[in-house]
Design a protein that fits this description.
Elements: H1 16-24, H2 30-34, E1 40-42, E2 47-48, E3 58-71, E4 77-83, E5 88-93, H3 98-101, E6 109-119, E7 122-126, E8 129-132, E9 144-146, H4 155-168, H5 177-180, H6 188-196, H7 204-208, H8 213-239, H9 250-258, H10 265-278, E10 285-290, H11 296-309, E11 313-318, H12 321-335, E12 342-345, H13 351-363, E13 368-372, H14 374-377, E14 385-390, H15 398-406, E15 412-417, H16 423-429, E16 434-438, E17 448-454, H17 458-470, E18 474-478, H18 486-503, E19 509-512, H19 518-529, E20 535-538, E21 551-556, H20 564-571, E22 581-587, H21 593-604, H22 608-619, H23 621-625, H24 644-660, H25 662-673
Parallel strand pairs: 2-3, 5-7, 10-15, 10-16, 11-13, 11-14, 12-13, 14-15, 17-22, 18-20, 18-21, 19-20, 21-22
Antiparallel strand pairs: 1-9, 3-4, 3-6, 4-5, 6-7, 6-8
This protein binds adenosine-5'-diphosphate and magnesium ion (MG).
Length: about 675
């Protein structure tokens, strides 16, 4: 789609060392220089008299050096004083190079750009930008753009490269007049030129304002490129072939009849959507979204049975071995009585067992294979793979999604996630998936009471564990995440286990952590599920998916170290039975502002969607999307919270363009995403 002789897509004509630096900035082709926009602007168009210069903004002043010295108190620093006709000003440098000192030889004229503050010795600028001007120098006639850069690439050098491209690159419109006009967008060329080479009538703060029409235009274009590429990916998938899986409903009906509960309306709706997709001759890529505990597993099981009824195999993968194991146990319990053979396949299996499992999968004897992603990375050949189910899909990268696709042709894919996606994210980053939402919890759940307790009150909390278990319920105790050291984290878990065992001799206290072998972990989990153990001490391995309805107390140590999604997931492990459940979030002072903000959100909210929305506000979309974003075009200019209106406009325009102006689509994608189009085929 991109032509090699097209000047926009040629690499910048620079030496290899410089090309490397540009590459670090995401600049791989000449047009990327055009799209490399300033972070901010400096105003060197106007010279202030020292005495009249305003506070609270960067100003340019010029004066003669009347003194300088290197002071040693309170720390080594260079201090100079300059003077103009109106007054004088101190310039202070805490970091400086020896050769900077000579700029301040008495009698030199310098210009200083910086913010003036009131200091002990009168007005001062700390670390101003300095230029010696000798007998005066002309003022800039427009604001100076300051670009994101890397070490060893100066602003003037980068500016020169960029400005050269402004004259040689095509900056025409990609959008047809007919569709662009009603949106009243600033023309692309005008927006680009203004941002790179601002005219004197704009102030630095006007140019920094995201509502400036020029910025709006670029954000819109960027969002439009994203929408177009997602839609193309969606279309490309619809052109692929997959086996239509109609099923005769025998097995699914048999399972539904045996269930001790009936499906909620939301589960039925989601299942109907999945089943409708499965009957299609092209691959389903559906995201099944539902808050923790909303009952996604049974929907997945029934979808699996539809595939199995149709004579195909199903693979289910989960991000951790514990979670995969839970699925295995639950699905075997549901499916084996119906005569459907289920197999466990994980990295930790012994060689012989693994070979057996692989043989059974290859022969088609195994109808459902459950495991971790190791299942799909190894050389596992399916006989007839019809459906792949991926739990907690946000934990997996796009790459893994692709790897799956290559096994046994193109199976249908059902992805499950308990991480609720705010609407803006769903609209942009998940626009290539179909989404079903389970927006209703099964009946009979009791609300969870969340408590924030200082870890100094540990004794009381242990007493509360004792009481909960004396009442016949069970408790989780989650040990803190210690990012620096897995060994330390393990040690903490072992110590906590010992302490609780000593303090609660009447109770069975179990321990699971990431270093245990899979079968050891499974044995402990199973004992906890049977209430042979009343307390389960765990590292965060239990984060997702564990399901023991009789557990009604969740204690989380050092909750301030955990992210919101993780806290929400952990809290969701309780509140699954009929007993009133409690989640104790232990914290240690002092709390950072971020930690405070997170704890406040989790304390005040139970709704996963609201928590995710707040999470997005606190830390931006990057982390929330996890691996999903890798390989996808990141948004550089648009901001999903701020630019909802632009996003909606882009979403409306995309299908019209695709329908009526395929050439405009090509031109627009080429401008914005050339060189990164590999994901179009995803
Ligand atoms: P998640 O969506 O978090 O994966 P699960 O599928 O593990 O949730 O379901 C949570 C619990 O709710 C399980 O014990 C499951 O058997 C139970 N469950 C699922 N659907 C229903 C329902 N319709 N009525 C009652 N309980 C249900
Ligand atoms: Mg689950």
């Amino acid at each position: 789609m991109t032509s090699l002789i097209d000047p926009a897509n040629q690499p910048p004509a620079v030496a290899p060392a410089l090309a490397k630096k540009l590459e670090k900035l995401g600049i791989r082709r000449r047009f990327d220089l055009v799209l490399h926009l300033p972070l901010r602007y400096e105003d060197e168009t106007h010279l202030y008299a020292i005495a009249d210069a305003p506070y609270g903004q960067a100003v340019l002043v010029e004066g003669e050096v009347i003194a300088h010295e290197i002071q040693f108190r309170p720390r080594r620093q260079l201090v100079a004083r300059i003077e103009d006709a109106s007054g004088s000003l101190v310039l202070r440098f805490i970091h400086f190079y020896p050769n900077q000192v000579k700029q301040f030889t008495t009698g030199n004229r310098v210009r200083a750009l910086g913010e003036i503050r009131r200091g002990f010795a009168g007005d001062e600028m700390v670390h101003p930008k300095i230029r010696e001007v000798g007998n005066g120098a002309p003022l800039a006639d427009s604001l100076t753009p300051i670009y994101p850069t890397v070490n060893g690439l100066t602003q003037p050098a980068l500016r020169k490269l960029i400005h050269a491209e402004l004259d040689s690159q095509p900056l025409g419109e990609t959008l047809p007049e007919e569709l662009a006009a009603p949106l009243r967008l600033t023309p692309f060329a005008e927006a680009i030129r203004l941002l790179h080479l601002p005219t004197p009538d704009y102030s630095a703060s006007q140019l920094a304002d995201p509502r400036l029409p020029a910025w709006q235009r670029l954000k819109f274009d960027e969002l439009l490129a994203q929408q177009l590429s997602m839609r193309l990916a969606y279309r490309a998938r619809r052109l692929g072939r997959a086996p239509p899986l109609r099923g005769d409903g025998m097995l699914s009906r048999a399972l539904v009849e045996r269930l001790p509960f009936s499906l909620t309306g939301a589960q039925q709706r989601a299942l109907a959507e999945v089943r409708a997709d499965l009957t299609q001759p092209h691959p389903m890529h559906r995201l099944l979204q539902g808050d923790v505990g909303s009952g996604k597993t049974i929907v997945a099981a029934l979808a699996a049975l539809t595939a199995i009824e149709s004579g195909y195999q199903v693979a289910l993968m989960a991000p951790t071995e514990i979670l995969a194991e839970q699925h295995f146990l639950k699905l075997s319990a549901w499916l084996e009585p119906l005569g459907v053979p289920v197999r466990w396949l994980a990295g930790s299996l012994r060689k012989k067992q693994k070979q057996e499992a692989m043989a059974a999968i290859a022969s088609g004897e195994t109808r459902l294979a459950v495991g971790t992603h190791a299942l799909f990375q190894d050389e596992v050949a399916f006989h007839r793979l019809g459906l792949v189910i991926v739990d907690e899909q946000h934990r997996f990268g796009v790459g893994q999604r692709l790897a799956l696709k290559e096994k046994g042709g193109e199976p249908h894919q059902l992805m499950m996630s308990a991480t609720p996606i705010p609407r803006t994210l769903a609209m942009s980053f998940y626009a290539d998936l179909d989404v079903s939402v389970i927006d209703e919890l099964p009946p009979g759940r009791t609300p969870i009471v969340t408590k924030l307790i200082n870890s100094a009150r540990r004794e009381e909390i242990i007493a509360h564990v004792a009481k909960t278990c004396a009442d016949g319920q069970q408790a989780y105790w989650v040990c803190p995440l210690i990012e620096e050291s897995e060994t330390l984290q393990l040690q903490t878990a072992v110590d906590t286990h010992q302490q609780l065992t000593d303090d609660l001799p009447q109770l069975g206290v179990g321990l699971v952590h990431g270093r245990m072998k899979a079968d050891e972990k499974a044995a402990v989990m199973a004992a906890f599920a049977r209430n042979e153990l009343q307390v389960l001490v765990a590292t965060t391995v239990i984060e997702v998916g564990v399901d023991v309805p009789n557990a009604s107390l969740m204690v989380i140590e050092h909750a301030e170290r955990m992210g919101l999604a993780q806290l929400h997931q952990l809290r969701g492990r309780v509140g699954r039975g009929s007993a009133r459940s409690v989640c104790v979030l232990m914290f240690d002072n002092p709390l950072s502002d971020l930690a405070k903000a997170r704890l406040k959100v989790i304390y005040e909210n139970v709704d996963g969607f609201e928590i995710a929305r707040q999470d997005l506000l606190i830390r931006g979309p990057g982390e929330l999307l996890g691996a999903r974003q890798s390989g996808l075009p990141m948004l550089r200019f648009a901001n999903l919270e701020e630019d909802l209106e632009l996003l909606e406009a882009a979403r409306e325009l995309a299908p019209l363009l695709l329908e009526r102006h395929p050439q405009a689509v090509d031109a627009h994608l080429d401008r914005w995403l050339a060189g990164r189009e590999q994901f179009l085929k995803a």
